[in-house]
């Protein structure tokens, strides 16, 4: 199938499945998902879906909450259809941590005759199932319980390994079932978290453009339009999302799945994850270290999108002294950087330092080469920065939905805001506005200006 910018808005989500997509960008795209059901009473079609793929026995996994929300219903339809299954429910009322122990606990449950994992849930359960699915070559089918994040269709799984939030390449689920009857009844904070994750795409797509201009990264206008169209549809129907309108919830779930398809198309998370996600991951790790209750991923992403929008505003208003930037690059202190990483990342520090040194991320020569590229393309970069909605516009969108827009609303204090802006770039290798401002020696100055802005707006 051929796709172009003009044709994207006329396609349905199912049109992207099971086809080799020949794109305007000259790359061939494909997603390994075979079926997506986002409809009312979608769970009733689970047995049919399992038999379509000729599966014989499922391992059904859930946690205590998702078991109550949809697990018993899944069991009922499987029993009624005489489909063989084993069920495993993660115990514990607290947040499920996707670490080595949790992965091991899931692996132990897989019996020799298991040929599919049916995962009832969203974020962490989704990541665990996809990772284990990839490791043991048993496919997974996701039964979503809330439209709360965009990882359903992605080929990545975010786990905590050696105390560091790490993304692992894995496989897409074989199928995704989003039962609108269940999704619309999800806690409103989870629905709004999904909306926050969608709003974060403003930042992610801007970072991708920066990566293209500065580092020559692959970039696809068609994929960008796929994500933008989905995002716009959700933002234009905030009232429907707030009122749990079935059509609006369907749009939100489809947008979350579509961004996962977009990631599969390009082979990485560029279309959906940038500096806003790096900030969210940083805060998540800090809360984990401090034994604080986790904040929903999409909620953090939405708040971070306000911050990255303000960084773009400050950039667009700045006059860059490139001689000063090169001077600062030449005086970079690797030992001081290591001390900062060790102080903030604690148990995860050594892995970050190891990856950094292996990839030569702090290479002065490479940084200076990037500064020259930035200088040559500064007009285009400023134009990119000006296309981002302002921090106040992003704030208004989030507030209209009833979502958090300020770090303090979810317990993220001044130091976590400033340190996050300064050090969240170490969490991932991907080039974003955080790396860009660091290259120019402006990141610390901008971090304090952003915090002052946030504090002023709270008054």
TrEMBL record:
InterPro entries: G1PDH, Glycerol_DH. Keywords: Cytoplasm, Lipid biosynthesis, Lipid metabolism, Metal-binding, NAD, NADP, Oxidoreductase, Phospholipid biosynthesis, Phospholipid metabolism. GO terms for molecular function: glycerol-1-phosphate dehydrogenase [NAD(P)+] activity; metal ion binding. Coiled coil: none annotated. Its EC number is 1.1.1.261. GO terms for biological process: phospholipid biosynthetic process. This is Glycerol-1-phosphate dehydrogenase (NAD(P)(+)). It comes from Pelosinus fermentans JBW45.
């Amino acid at each position: 199938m051929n796709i172009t910018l003009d044709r994207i808005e006329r396609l349905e989500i199912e049109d992207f499945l099971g086809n080799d997509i020949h794109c305007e960008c000259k790359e061939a795209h494909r997603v390994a998902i075979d079926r997506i059901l986002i409809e009312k009473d979608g769970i009733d079609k689970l047995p049919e879906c399992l038999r379509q793929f000729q599966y014989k026995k499922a391992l059904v996994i859930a946690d205590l909450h998702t078991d109550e929300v949809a697990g018993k219903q899944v069991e009922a339809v499987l029993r009624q259809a005489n489909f063989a299954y084993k069920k495993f429910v993660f115990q514990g009322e607290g947040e499920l941590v996707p670490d080595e122990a949790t992965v091991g606990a899931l692996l132990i449950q897989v019996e020799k005759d298991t040929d599919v994992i049916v995962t009832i849930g969203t974020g962490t359960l989704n990541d665990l199932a996809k990772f284990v699915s990839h490791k043991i070559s048993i496919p997974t089918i996701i039964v979503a319980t809330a439209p709360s994040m965009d990882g359903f269709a992605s080929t990545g799984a975010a786990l905590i390994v050696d105390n560091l939030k790490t993304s692992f390449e894995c496989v897409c689920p074989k199928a995704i079932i989003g039962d609108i009857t269940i999704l619309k009844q999800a806690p409103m904070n989870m629905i709004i978290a999904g909306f926050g994750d969608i709003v974060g795409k403003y930042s992610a797509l801007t970072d991708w453009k920066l990566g293209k201009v500065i580092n020559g990264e692959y970039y696809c206008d068609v994929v960008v339009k796929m994500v933008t169209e989905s995002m716009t549809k959700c933002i234009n129907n905030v009232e429907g999302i707030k009122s749990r309108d079935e059509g609006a919830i369907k749009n939100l779930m489809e947008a979350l799945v579509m961004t996962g398809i977009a990631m599969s198309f390009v082979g990485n998370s560029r279309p959906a994850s940038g500096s806003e996600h790096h900030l969210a991951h940083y805060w998540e790790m800090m809360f984990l270290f401090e034994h604080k209750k986790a904040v929903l991923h999409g909620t953090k992403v939405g708040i971070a999108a306000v911050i990255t929008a303000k960084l773009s505003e400050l950039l667009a208003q700045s006059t860059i002294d490139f001689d000063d930037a090169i001077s600062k690059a030449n005086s970079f202190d690797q030992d001081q950087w290591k001390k900062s990483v060790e102080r903030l990342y604690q148990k995860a520090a050594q892995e970050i330092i190891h990856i950094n040194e292996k990839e030569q991320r702090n290479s002065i020569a490479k940084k200076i080469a990037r500064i020259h590229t930035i200088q040559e393309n500064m007009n285009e970069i400023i134009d990119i920065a000006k296309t981002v909605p302002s921090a106040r516009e992003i704030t208004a969108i989030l507030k209209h939905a009833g979502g958090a827009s300020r770090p303090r609303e979810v317990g993220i204090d001044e130091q976590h805001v400033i340190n996050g802006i300064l050090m969240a770039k170490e969490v991932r290798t991907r080039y974003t506005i955080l790396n860009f401002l660091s290259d120019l020696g402006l990141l610390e100055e901008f971090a304090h200006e952003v915090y002052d802005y946030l504090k002023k707006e709270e008054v």
